[in-house]
Amino acid sequence: MSSKGDVRVEPVTQAVDIARCFEIVAATFGTQTADNIWMAWNPGWNTPEGKAECISRMKRHWATATVDRAGNLNTVYLKATVSDPDGGEVIAGMALWLQASIIPGYGDAPEADLVKAMDLDTLYPGDASAHRYICQVTKSLLRQRNQCVMEAASRSPPAVMIADLCGIDPAFQGRGIGSKMIQWGLDEAVRRGGLEAVLEASTAGRAVWSRLGFKQDGPEIEYHLDDEFRDRRLPSNIFMRTGRPRQRVSRDGEKAKRRFYRCSISPNIRRRCLTLDGDGYMGGREL
C-alpha cells in the first residue's frame, strides 16, 4: 500500500470494488472523452444491461489473474481512495497494471487470438465486420507494446510492466491521483527486478507521464484499418516507455521469442519482421 496526502493507492482485493472501478472508467473513457476504442470494447456500457455485463467481465478478469514464478500477480487492479465530505472514503480512481512476458512463469503473453481473448462472439454475435474492426484497431494500438514484450525475452527478468488503463472520476481529477497510481506501478516494476514500464498515452496524459520518466517512442500511433472503417473517429495515442535496459542477451529468451513469432504471426509478416534488425525484432491513458 502507498499513501500520499489524502490519497491511498492499493490493489483491489474485494470483488465489491470492481463495480466502482468500472463506473470510473466509464465516466472517463465513455461519458467524458467518448473514446471510440474503449466503447467498442465495452458495448452497451451506458445501458443498465450492458453495464452489468461489463462489470461481470471485469470481475472475471480480476478473479482469474495469474501469478508469476515469484507469486506476483500478473494482473493488478489498483484503486485510489480519498476521503469524502462525510468523513468516509470513496474510490476516486482505478488503474490496471499488467506483467507481460513470452517466457512461461514471468508474465502473461500477448494474446494471439483476439476474437477468443476478447470474447467477440459473445459481444458481437454474428457480426464479422465488428470483429474485424475491433481486431484491427486493437492490434494497431498494442503493436509497440507487444514488440516490447518480445524484446524483453532477451533480458533478465524477461518481462515488462504495462500500464494498461488509468481512469479518474471527473469529480476528483486534477489532484494527482493518476500520477500516484502510475508511480505505484513504477515502484512495483523496480521491486520485481527492474522491469521496464510502458503505456499508450492520450493527449491529456502525456505531460504527466513524461514527468514520471516515460519517453515517447516513435510517432503517433497509426491505426491500420480496412477502407470501410477509415472514417471512424479514433483517439490520439502515442507509445511511451521508461527505457530499454541494456542487458546481456539470453539464448533461451531468443529461442522463445522466435517461437512466439512462429505461433502468432502469419508467414509473410513474420519473414518481414525477422529481417528488420539483427536481433529479429519488429522494430493508460489518463484524464
Protein described:
With 287 residues, the chain is an alpha+beta fold. It contains ten helices and eight strands. It has helices at 16-32, 36-41, 48-63, 114-117, 120-123, 128-151, 177-191, 206-211, 251-264, 267-273, and strands spanning 2-4, 7-11, 75-83, 89-100, 160-168, 196-202, 215-216, 237-241. The chain has an eight-stranded mixed sheet, with helices on both faces. Strand 5 (160-168), helix 7 and strand 6 (196-202) form a beta-alpha-beta unit. The longest helix is centred in the middle third of the chain and has 24 residues, at 128-151. It starts with a strand and ends in a 14-residue tail after the last helix. 33% of the residues are buried.
Short description:
By secondary structure, this protein is α+β, with helices and mostly antiparallel strands.
Annotate the secondary structure layout.
Layout: E1 2-4, E2 7-11, H1 16-32, H2 36-41, H3 48-63, E3 75-83, E4 89-100, H4 114-117, H5 120-123, H6 128-151, E5 160-168, H7 177-191, E6 196-202, H8 206-211, E7 215-216, E8 237-241, H9 251-264, H10 267-273
Parallel strand pairs: 5-6
Antiparallel strand pairs: 1-2, 2-3, 3-4, 4-5, 6-8, 7-8
Strand-residue proportion: 15-25%
Shape: globular
Strand order of the largest sheet: 1-2-3-4-5-6-8-7
What is the overall pLDDT average? 87
Low-confidence segments: 264-287
- Cα radius of gyration in angstroms: 19 Å
Oligomer: single chain
First-last Cα distance: 23 Å
Tally the beta strands: 8
Structural class of the secondary structure composition? alpha+beta
- SS element count, helices: 10
Largest sheet: 8 strands, mixed
